[in-house]
Amino acid sequence: MIHKDNPLPDRLERAQDSQPREPDMKYYAMRTDRWNRPLVLRELRQGRLRQGWGYAPRLDLRMLRDRNDRGEQLDEEEIAAWKNWRMLGGDDGFAVGTRLLLSNLPNDGQFVLVEMSGAYDYQPVQLSKAENINDLGEDYGHILPVSAPSKRAFFAYQDERVTAPLRRSMTSRSRIWSLADHSRNLDELWQLAQSGDVGAVQWDRAGALARVVSDADAAVRDKWHEVFLDRLRQSFQNAELEEPCKRLLEAIFRGADVQWTAGPTEHGADLVVSYEDPVARSGEPPALSWLLLVQVKAWEGAAHDLSAVDQIDEAFQYYRNRGSARGLDHDAVRRGKSGVQDAP
Known about the structure:
Elements: E1 27-30, H1 37-44, E2 48-51, H2 61-69, H3 76-82, E3 99-103, E4 110-115, E5 121-122, E6 125-126, E7 138-139, E8 142-145, E9 154-156, H4 164-169, E10 176-178, H5 183-193, H6 205-235, H7 242-252, E11 257-260, E12 271-276, E13 289-294, H8 307-321, H9 330-342
Parallel strand pairs: 1-3
Antiparallel strand pairs: 1-10, 2-8, 3-4, 4-9, 5-8, 6-7, 11-12, 12-13
């Protein structure tokens, strides 16, 4: 029962002691006291996750639950301590096998992953002079047994392997919050953490965008090609293919002059690509200019019609006589024609 003047969550009456059971791979994030980080880390490496707001016997979560069951009103300090209620267990609480992301450990902008290995306990720790920052004498009484992380098994928020939605969740101001929506990424990070040395892969905008484009391209490339070729066949025939071919050549030979020359006076070439020597030294005038002569045919399968080779041969003769076909391999044209003639 919740007292009418007590603003506690309705989950209070459902919280029960956590009992060992099979892991269900639940993930939660948890903030600890960043101002007493050395103490938290020291305890953590001994398998104890300690949380603050635990400096007096009356703040034991089990006692708070029992008092609530009796209908007693809690004071402000007890309500603040109860914000750790998930540590006690229950339907929406932690249980053995729950994995916790501890933010800002071991340093700001980093986190470690641990797994709960036992039930909640309460035992405040005596604080040294340096640790007694709130003049309480003792604190951090809320304890969860956890798997001790390796000193090297931590991740930076800006690690490339940490997804943007998970990074965004780190801005939560809650003391404890669910990471159920990030389980897939956290499973991957957990496996890395088990190696004991996760290394570091710095995230950067340009690299991340390049990988997004590459991954998306790889995922859709085959289907894209299939649809593109189908639509191309349905939309273009014969000489109509000269326009998409011209666009393709302009994309391949950036900066080149691609001329459409098809028609009654084409002299054997539908398209002529003019470009300068690609290996000329930067800043020096090119010693050579090149022509690529293109004849477009809407053919599929084996071709035995020599007309296209004859047209390219005609184009070579025409542009050579004009002194502008120095880049062409005429012998290759003749060999190609011979190969078609000899084919069965």
